[in-house]
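Worked example 2:
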Amino acid sequence: MHDLQAIIDGLPGIYLIVAADAEYTMVASSDERLRVTMTRREDVIGKPLFEVFATMSRRSRAPAQRRCAAPWRTSSPPARPSA
């Protein structure tokens, strides 16, 4: 996964790459994302996305997990919630 990290490191902005596995394992993060989320790379890389964001209640986490899973099942982007 070091190749993905090298790509992200060369880009400006906030980026996170997650694996297309059942846990959405975090595999690479930009320095800017780590800065704004006040996290350290060693604390998040290799961890499931929803474990890192465990402050979400299980009830609010379920819709987010379904939206994340939708592209893998349908090959289309998830619908954005209306404002």
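The chain has a mean pLDDT of 74. The chain is about 50% helix and 10% strand.
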